[in-house]
């Protein structure tokens, strides 16, 4: 019996022991044509056992790279793709530079600063004012989404002055206020509507209904008690002859 502790380690565990033995057998084939034919069959089998690789772009290229890797780059067969080597197979790519952004108003994000910069660079006065109004609308919407209390237009203009160095002023304050009121009703309106739709029950009718039910139950209990007593009397005193 052969134990796992006596076997050689698997280079790629996802393919299993049998595929690794087939790769080792390819290394022992001396005829190049036969070795090439068996390598193609083995590639088809590897793709059949791992159907998830078919969704990967150039999955056959990946299978050929895995075949060379499992043979420790000793397999001498022709490949339709560039043959990998030990040196360039596991070369780590250069790390991507992480964009370091430090917005002045973190609760508004970096994109607002980008829009403000585009508004400052805009020469058309009408487009510039439209961008300022759009920034103010987004600022008001962000405050209402993340805070329970509403924010005044003066606070918005103060923060816009900080972002634009005092060069932008929004002019759509009444429009913003109306849109946000329609979008998010206040708690007082919700409570008022709830009280308006609530209709209290008539307590007098409830009390009368409860009294009538209790009176009916008492009468029913008295009748049952009298019937039980009559039955007990008839059964207990039988006529003797």
Any key phrases for this structure?
single chain; DUF4290 domain-containing protein
Summed up:
The chain is mainly α and 241 residues long. Among the domains are: 15-90, no CATH class; 108-176, no CATH class. It has nine helices and no strands.
* Assembly level: single chain
Task: Tell me what portion of residues adopts beta-strand conformation.
Answer: under 5%
Structural class: mainly alpha
Low-confidence stretches: 185-200, 234-241
Tell how many strands the DSSP assignment holds. Answer: 0
**Which outline best applies?**
elongated
- Please state the CA-atom Rg, rounded to the nearest Å: 43 Å
Q: Main sheet, how many strands, which sense, barrel?
A: none
Number of helices: 9
Distance between the termini: 101 Å
Estimate the mean pLDDT confidence.
Answer: 76
- Helical content (DSSP H or I, runs of 4+): 55-70%
Order of helices and strands: HHHHHHHHH
What does this structure look like?
This protein has nine helices and no strands. It is mainly alpha-helical and 241 residues long. Among the domains are: 76 residues, no CATH class; 69 residues, no CATH class. α1 packs antiparallel against α2 and α2 crosses α3. The relative contact order is 0.05.
């Amino acid at each position: 019996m052969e134990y796992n502790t006596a076997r050689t380690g698997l280079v790629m565990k996802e393919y299993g022991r049998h595929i690794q033995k087939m790769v080792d057998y390819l290394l022992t084939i001396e005829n190049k044509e036969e070795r090439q034919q068996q390598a193609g069959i083995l590639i088809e089998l590897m793709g059949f056992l791992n159907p998830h690789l078919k969704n990967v772009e150039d999955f056959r290229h990946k299978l050929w790279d895995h075949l060379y890797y499992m043979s420790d780059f000793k397999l001498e067969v022709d490949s339709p793709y560039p043959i990998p080597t030990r040196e360039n197979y596991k070369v780590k790519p250069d790390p991507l530079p992480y964009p370091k952004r430090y917005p002045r108003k973190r609760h508004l994000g970096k994109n607002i600063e980008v829009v403000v910069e585009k508004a400052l660079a805009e020469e058309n006065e009408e487009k510039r004012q439209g961008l300022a109004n759009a920034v103010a609308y987004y600022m008001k919407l962000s405050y209402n989404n993340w805070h329970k209390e509403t924010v005044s237009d003066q606070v918005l203009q103060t923060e816009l002055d900080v972002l634009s160095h005092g060069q932008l002023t929004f002019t759509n304050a009444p429009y913003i206020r109306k849109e946000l009121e329609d979008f998010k009703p206040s708690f007082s309106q919700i409570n008022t509507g709830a009280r308006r739709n609530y209709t209290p029950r008539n307590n007098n009718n409830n009390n009368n209904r409860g009294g009538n039910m209790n009176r009916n139950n008492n009468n029913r209990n008295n009748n049952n008690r009298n019937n039980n007593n009559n039955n007990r009397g008839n059964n207990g005193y039988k006529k003797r002859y």
